[in-house]
Specification:
- By secondary structure, this protein is an alpha/beta fold.
- The protein has one domain: Ribonuclease Z/Hydroxyacylglutathione hydrolase-like (Metallo-beta-lactamase, Chain A).
- It contains six helices and 16 strands.
- It has a seven-stranded mixed β-sheet. The chain has a six-stranded mixed β-sheet with strand order 10-11-12-13-14-15.
- Strand 5, helix 4 and strand 6 form a beta-alpha-beta unit.
- It is globular and about 60 Å long.
- It binds zinc ion (3 copies).
- One zinc ion (ZN) binds next to helix 2.
Amino acid sequence: MTRLTFLGTGTSQGVPIIGCQCPVCRSADPKDKRLRAAALVEHDGLTLLIDAGPDFRAQMLSHDVRHLDAILLTHAHKDHTGGLDDVRSFNYIDRKAVEIYCEAAVLRSLRNDYAYAFAEHKYPGAPEWHVHLIDQRPFRVDSSAQSGELEWVHDKGYFYRMPDGSLQAPDNSILEAPHEAPNVIPIRGFHDQLPILGFRIGNIGYITDMSRLPEEEFSKLEGLEHLTLNTVGYKPHHSHFSLDEAIALARRIGARHTWLTHLSHTFPVHAQFCEELPPEIQPAWDGLVIED
Ligand SMILES: [Zn+2]
Ligand SMILES: [Zn+2]
Ligand SMILES: [Zn+2]
């Protein structure tokens, strides 16, 4: 069984937007209050967080999250990574680093954005992360995962110990074959020109911040109970699906239910937006829980 809780369903500025007086931003309906996009996934005895944006702290508190086995990052934009300093609370509770799964390009951004967390002589109290490098190949998150640290291999250089036990060079070449059954299937997509990841866990697919899904990825999304797709507005957008594109994609993938996320105030208030959409394709809201 896989359970996904939407912790945030808003676009990069969230809804309401600071200073905006539009009917959506002024709505009293709690479903019109959208924090930055993130989801908590419970699967296989694991508690996983997809993305840790600037609302991470509020999301952990409002859902009483006391433990995370891993954080999976879709891409490096701040509305998906801006809360990573606050994992310090989990460092103190669990007395260990937080396991983060991301692509090499995301790690490069984190090194720039959070240079102090990677410093050789860290200031006491800086966040502790174990970064596991992933790409579009299926991988395994383990509750006892301690991998992801750089290991020196004699005569060969530094490699990352991957969650499946293989060793991977920082350029993504694999040194040893994987040997454990994967439990997360990454979905490769594009956010304008930027390669990013979605994730399939059990029969739930989570896609955010994409404007293009390559043909070869569709087979990974067959037989889904629930699919999450991003859209920010009615008009075509360079880095996100428009509403029409998201609906067409949802119909092609054919999940039993499709939930729209990363929503902006250009859509109507939640209740009205629900009525505009077909029953099998509906806007998600903060706090919605789905199960496969
Ligand atoms: Zn975003
Ligand atoms: Zn507004
Ligand atoms: Zn983005």
